[in-house]
Write a structure and sequence with these properties.
Blueprint: H1 2-5, H2 9-20, H3 24-31, H4 41-45, H5 53-64, H6 67-80, H7 87-108, H8 116-121, H9 124-155, H10 161-210, H11 213-222, H12 241-257, H13 260-266, H14 272-303, H15 321-330, H16 336-368, H17 378-403, H18 409-433, H19 439-465, H20 515-533, H21 557-562, H22 585-595
Helix pairs in contact: 2-16, 3-10, 5-10, 5-14, 5-16, 6-14, 6-16, 7-12, 7-14, 9-10, 9-16, 9-17, 9-18, 9-19, 10-14, 10-16, 10-17, 11-14, 12-18, 12-20, 13-16, 15-16, 16-17, 18-19, 18-20, 19-20
Length: 602
């Protein structure tokens, strides 16, 4: 511990230089992309078929595994054990759901904005409500994602955390404004490689210094950190097998398959098969990176199994433990702290750039373009979206002052996201899987979900602030801290107790991982009855392609037979190739209004 208590100016310089070296990479990638077509607003927000499968998959990995994953998942392992790892194999089920329910619907309806589906399936009012919840969700969680790199940097240097936060946001704003989705995709590829290499190097060196894999697992088992299959059915338990699997299916399916930042990547490849391949590559990458992050937490516990740095005051909270571990284990190796900082910066920049890009496009299309405030040309669209990106970035910098006061960041991110994630997951599933759901059921179901989940979360946060609800971490030891110059014993620290099993059940006490599940179920419980009470969906002009292929058997026979079929005649990744489609007159006009005139065969 001694060398971690004071960091020399030279030691600080190395991580600064290494981490800052990440910043020019996005800028270079951004400026090197030639465009053969005339620039337009879709160049910023859609990026269509020119992108290839593998870069899209890596971009998904990089943007979805944020700084929260890099920093907070190891902290979760250190504090609560390996139960969270179940999310890694669960991604197989999540990918199956997305590939065979959501992706076919988006491709069959030629949707690049996933929320356009809600207008086609239900009504414009449903779309506007859900896009509002998405914008609200992103504005709530994005400051946390981008604050993580600043948190890591401040732990290994004496630079003010808010100065770092401002620099990070500024760099991300710069390349997102200039490059659009192409810059976001390719910088995500570079950052994803940095992310994996950094985590891998730090873990390998940590294992070697502890004494090998056998020593790591022996200490972790002794500290009760390897429990994975906790089959407890108690919904108030923070993490069990069921929360980590079933609960995360509802959370991550919506987060990955139904957020605009992900959908615009998935539909940017030449065909549905390419999209499915990209998602399978993402699934493998997610498994590897998540397993690596979880193992990092186990290695951290093995390192400090007999002297907890949090208890002795070297680290203020668990989310700052990983930078401390890196400085302690590899701080004597020139450049290694900088490699770690590069990893966290890459994760934070990837997530922020992806969300800023999709957020700007969505706000412009749904809340600015419909109103004739000015002449909407390609140039004005680009300028407007760049201003939106700039304003959103400045907002993230300002919100860093509040994020700094948060407790466990992983729990906070999941909690905030769940306010709307369950409603979004529920309304898309209701539309794709239940043909008789109508706009009234969708609107009432999603609104009820947001209200009820917000009420549960508010009550839970109030209980936490009043010390009525707590999730105490697993025990840690300080018995060998005297070897490092700390005269402490276990009696010097208070003992925290979890809520008693025989205590009266309260909805506020359910695990935060279940919030999205509750929200999704509420959409169905309210949406289906309201749809029936208001006359169900009118099937006279209904299109079967708005229903997932797996659920089309429920449609009336005449709807399946008479449905308009969009048949692809020629679709390649060559932007110069003319794309020919078969349209009805009504579909042609609707497509032109949404996407602009294209070559058509009527």
């Amino acid at each position: 511990f001694q060398r971690t208590r004071r960091v020399s100016s030279r030691s600080r310089t190395i991580p600064c230089l290494r981490s800052c070296s990440v910043c020019p990479l996005p800028s270079g990638c951004t400026l090197d992309f030639p465009t053969q077509d005339k620039p337009n607003d879709r160049g910023v927000s859609a990026g269509r078929a020119e992108d290839e499968t593998f870069p899209i998959a890596i971009s998904l990995i990089a943007s979805q595994l944020s700084g929260v994953s890099i920093m907070s998942v190891p902290a979760e392992m250190y504090s609560y054990g390996a139960q969270y790892w179940i999310i890694a194999p669960t991604m197989l089920i999540i990918t199956l759901i997305i590939n065979y329910i959501f992706v076919p619907v988006f491709y069959n309806n030629q949707i690049t904005n996933c929320y356009q589906y809600l207008e086609d399936r239900f009504s414009p009012s449903v779309k506007k409500f859900v896009t509002f919840t998405y914008v609200l969700n992103i504005y709530l969680v994005l400051p946390i994602f981008i604050f993580i790199p600043a948190l890591a940097f401040s732990q290994v240097s004496d630079i003010n955390i808010h100065v770092i936060n401002g620099i990070v946001c500024g760099v991300c704003i710069f390349y997102t404004m200039l490059g659009g989705i192409k810059a976001v995709v390719w910088t995500d590829v570079v950052q994803g490689m940095i992310m994996f290499a950094s985590c891998f190097l730090v873990v390998i060196i940590g294992v070697i210094k502890i004494g090998g894999l056998s020593a790591v697992f022996e200490r972790a088992a002794e500290g009760d950190r390897l429990e994975i299959f906790d089959l407890t059915l108690d919904a108030t338990t923070r993490q069990t097998f069921w929360t980590s699997s079933v609960g995360n299916i509802f959370l991550w399916t919506g987060y990955l398959g139904l957020s605009q930042s992900c959908v615009q990547r998935i539909v940017a490849v030449p065909s549905m098969n390419h999209a499915r391949s990209a998602l399978w590559i993402f699934c493998v990458g997610f498994f590897i990176i998540t397993s690596l992050n979880c193992f990092t937490g186990i290695v951290m516990f093995a390192k400090y199994f007999d002297c907890d740095p949090i208890k002795v005051g070297l680290v203020q909270k668990a989310d700052k433990l990983l930078p401390f571990f890196v400085q302690d284990v590899v701080g004597n190796l020139k450049g290694m702290p900088g490699v770690f900082i590069s990893c966290v910066f890459s994760a934070g920049l990837s997530t922020m750039s992806a969300n800023l890009n999709s957020l700007a496009g969505l706000v412009y299309e749904d809340y600015i373009r419909p109103y004739k405030l000015f002449k909407h040309t390609d140039a004005s669209a680009n300028l407007t979206m760049k201003v939106l990106i700039l304003v959103s970035g400045v907002y993230c910098i300002a919100m860093g002052l509040i994020v700094e006061q948060f407790g466990h960041l992983l729990q906070m991110v999941v909690t905030i996201a769940s306010v709307t994630q369950g409603a979004v997951m529920g309304i898309f599933c209701l539309g794709m899987l239940w043909p008789w759901a109508n706009k009234h059921g969708a609107l009432w179901g999603s609104a009820s979900s947001v209200i009820v989940v917000s009420w549960i979360i508010s009550g839970a946060q109030l209980a936490i602030s009043n010390k009525q609800l707590a999730y105490p971490p697993k025990s840690t030891s300080v018995e060998s801290c005297y070897e490092y110059g700390f005269n402490v014993t276990a009696d010097d620290f208070p003992t925290f107790h979890a809520p008693q099993d025989d205590a009266e059940f309260s909805i506020y006490n359910i695990s935060f991982v279940w919030y999205s599940t509750v929200g999704t179920l509420i959409v169905f419980l309210v949406g289906i009855p309201v749809s029936y009470l208001t006359g169900s969906q009118d099937m006279r002009n209904f299109k079967a392609k708005l229903i997932a292929p797996l659920a089309q058997w429920m449609l009336p026979e005449e709807v399946r037979q008479n449905d308009f079929s969009l048949k692809e005649v020629n679709r390649t990744s060559d932007p110069t190739t003319v794309k020919e489609w078969t349209f009805t007159v009504n579909e042609t006009q609707k497509y032109k209004e949404r996407n602009g005139a294209i070559e058509q065969t009527l």
